[in-house]
């Protein structure tokens, strides 16, 4: 099966793969640029970044992948959501992907600047509303995905429902790891896929070696759990001492609060917990991950990931 191009507005990705925007600071310029240079769409995870840092990452990614497509992923739940989107648009970002909540306002910002806005949704109803508001494409995320989840249903069930009600490009997300997964999504009516876990466990991902070791050690279904996020959504994570404490409602409450979220339960500080894991403290850090991370047994470069995906796709009959 030949990989089709993915068209989002005026953007044309030679390979229909969007790299998931993984915060905090897992998806920075080196990862986004590497994906963009392979013909996919690279995303910088903007949530939790000061505006100046986001500007730096965007400029660096654009320099590293001058002919590639670079976007940002940002949580609607973030207090600085509007400012992060405005900063990215000001830096000439190619597209904005937004999840962990829904914003009607962002479509007007995109229309005013000519920037494609791509919401992450988990239902046909929200996909249809997004189209009416001016979305450029729809990412459909199911329960297989890592991080914040909006549903307990599989993306394989939701994608056909979304395809039936919108005329926009549809991108399937959640549990996409191999060529056969891409082919399955395309057969369901998707125009492309978003992949997070495979790129989290890549050379270019900005995670510590200790974090990547946790990915490779998570080999069993029981290694993956759902935790309650202060954002107000369930989050899919790898079982660690800290996530166990969350389950038992014994996670330490924040001593100081940066007011990074619009609404927060203050049960624990998710930004700091994710940052600790990213920096290598996997004992007191939170490790978000999709369930199929257990099928990943080695850290590969982005170039190697694209090579094997293309090879697998070539072996699949049309």
Write the layout of secondary structure elements.
Blueprint: E1 6-8, E2 11-13, E3 17-19, H1 29-37, E4 41-45, H2 51-64, E5 69-75, H3 81-90, E6 95-99, H4 105-113, E7 117-121, H5 124-133, E8 138-141, E9 147-148, H6 155-163, E10 170-173, H7 179-187, E11 192-195, H8 197-200, H9 209-217, E12 224-228, E13 234-238, H10 241-247, H11 270-279, H12 302-314
Parallel strand pairs: 3-11, 4-5, 5-6, 6-7, 7-8, 8-10, 10-11
Antiparallel strand pairs: 1-2, 9-13, 12-13
Helix pairs in contact: 1-2, 2-3, 3-4, 5-6, 7-12
Describe this structure as you would to a colleague:
36% of the residues lie in helices and 17% in strands. The protein is of the alpha/beta class and 318 residues long. The chain has 2 domains: 6-206 and 295-315, Aldolase class I (TIM Barrel); 209-294, no CATH class. Strands 3-11-10-8-7-6-5-4 form an 8-stranded parallel sheet. Strands 9-13-12 form a 3-stranded antiparallel sheet, with helices on one face. Strands 1-2 form a two-stranded antiparallel ribbon. Helix 2 links the parallel strand 4 (41-45) and strand 5 (69-75). Helix 3 (81-90) packs parallel to helix 4 (105-113), helix 5 crosses helix 6 and helix 7 (179-187) crosses helix 12. The radius of gyration is 18 Å and the shape is globular. Keywords: Flavoprotein, FMN, Monooxygenase, Oxidoreductase. GO terms for molecular function: nitronate monooxygenase activity. InterPro entries: Aldolase_TIM, NMO. It holds the Pfam family NMO.
């Amino acid at each position: 099966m030949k990989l089709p191009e993915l068209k989002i507005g005026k953007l044309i990705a030679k390979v229909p793969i969007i790299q998931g925007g993984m915060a905090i600071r897992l998806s920075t310029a080196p990862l986004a640029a590497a994906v963009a240079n392979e013909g996919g769409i690279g995303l910088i995870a903007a949530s939790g970044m000061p505006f100046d840092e986001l500007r730096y990452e965007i400029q660096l990614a654009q320099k590293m992948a001058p002919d590639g497509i670079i976007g940002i992923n940002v949580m609607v739940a973030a207090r600085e959501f509007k400012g992060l989107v405005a900063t990215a648009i000001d830096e000439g970002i190619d597209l904005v992907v937004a999840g962990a909540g829904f914003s009607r306002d962002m479509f007007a910002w995109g229309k005013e600047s000519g920037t494609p806005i791509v919401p992450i949704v988990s239902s046909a109803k929200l996909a249809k509303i997004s189209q009416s508001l001016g979305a450029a494409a729809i990412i459909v995320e199911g329960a297989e995905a890592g991080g914040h989840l909006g549903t307990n249903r599989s993306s394989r069930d939701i994608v056909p429902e979304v395809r039936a009600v919108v005329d926009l490009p549809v991108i399937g997300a959640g549990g996409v790891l191999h060529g056969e997964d891409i082919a399955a999504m395309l057969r369901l009516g998707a125009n492309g896929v978003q992949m997070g876990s495979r790129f989290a466990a890549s050379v270019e991902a900005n995670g510590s070696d200790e974090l990547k070791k946790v990915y490779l050690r998570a080999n069993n279904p029981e290694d993956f759990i759902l935790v309650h996020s202060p954002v107000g959504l369930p989050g899919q994570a790898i079982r660690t001492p800290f996530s166990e404490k969350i389950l038992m409602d014994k996670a330490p409450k924040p001593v100081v609060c940066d007011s990074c979220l619009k609404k927060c339960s203050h049960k624990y500080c998710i930004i700091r917990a994710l940052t600790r894991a990213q920096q290598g403290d996997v004992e007191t850090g939170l490790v978000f991950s999709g369930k199929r991370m257990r099928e990943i047994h080695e850290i590969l470069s982005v170039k190697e990931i694209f090579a094997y995906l293309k090879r697998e796709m070539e072996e699949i009959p049309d």
